[in-house]
Amino acid sequence: QVQLVESGGGVVQPGGSLRLSCAASGFTFSSYGMHWVRQAPGKGLEWVAFIRYDGSNKYYADSVKGRFTISRDNSKNTLYLQMNSLRAEDTAVYYCAKDNPVAGGHYMDVWGKGTTVTVSS
Amino acid sequence: DIQMTQSPSTLSASVGDRVTITCRASQSISSWLAWYQQKPGKAPKLLIYKASSLESGVPSRFSGSGSGTEFTLTISSLQPDDFATYYCQQYNSFWTFGQGTKVEIK
């Protein structure tokens, strides 16, 4: 079955860096775009970044543009999120999600369980 | 940026009730809308895509409708497993979620 497993979360000081990973299985990873979505404690969902199936295009939320980088290694079926210059407001559970391109629209059909990032001194 | 506004923020209901959640977009998004269910400590789960298409495996008591700027999620007969938070999401231009609607036990 389709499975996404995030890892790499932890506690980091403000200004620090962290790299998240998302291991995919059960589907042809190289054929699908992928998202990162986050959820701050007690808050709603916020889309963070998207990468096309071949890595040719990447899109970011304004709140992370210039600080976060999404990438993928299709040979390893793995998605990444490099997070630099971290701020307290980046504290959240980070989910990776598989994109489903149906008739021109792109929604998220499968989600991982998430990994927690805490930015604190 | 497209803003998504859900109402109500909290909804108290009983098992067997018909429940309706509304989602409004700040501009037309055609039918590029999805609905997700999230339970505490769990990842979101896709229920509906393209405004009214039921995801495989989702019970038929869930239905979605609308187009343009106004959308609804309806649960025809609320079951104990349905107490959760529901989010709408537009995917017409990038991706934006509504603030969520918590469905709690009355």
Strand content of chain B: over 45%
Largest sheet of chain A: 7 strands, mixed
Helix tally of chain B equals 0
Radius of gyration of chain A: 14 Å
Helix content of chain B: under 10%
Radius of gyration of chain B: 13 Å
Which descriptor suits the 3D outline of chain B? Answer: globular
> What order do the helices and strands of chain A follow?
EEEEEEEEEEE
Low confidence ranges of chain A: none
Kindly state the number of beta strands of chain B. Answer: 11
Give the tally of β-strands of chain A: 11
User: Mean pLDDT of chain A, rounded to whole units?
Assistant: 97
The most extensive interface between chains reads: A-B, 24 and 24 residues
Textual characterization of the structure:
The complex is a heterodimer of chains A (121) and B (106). Chain A is mainly beta and 121 residues long. Chain A contains no helices and eleven strands. In chain A, a hairpin with a 4-residue loop joins strand 7 and strand 8 (78-83). Chain A starts with a strand and ends with a strand. Chain B has strands at 4-7, 10-13, 19-25, 33-38, 45-49, 53-54, 62-67, 70-75, 85-90, 96-97, 101-105. The mean pLDDT of chain B is 97. Chain B has 106 residues and is an all-beta fold. In chain B, strands 2, 4, 5, 6, 9, 10 and 11 form a seven-stranded mixed β-sheet that branches. Chain B has a four-stranded antiparallel β-sheet with strand order 1-3-8-7, with no helix packed on it. In chain B, 0% of the residues lie in helices and 50% in strands. Chain B is globular. In chain B, strand 5 (45-49) and strand 6 form a beta hairpin. Chain A binds chain B through residues 35, 37, 44-47, 50, 59, 61-62, 95, 100, 102-103, 105-114, and chain B through 1, 32, 34, 36, 38, 42-46, 49-50, 55, 87, 89, 91-92, 94-100.
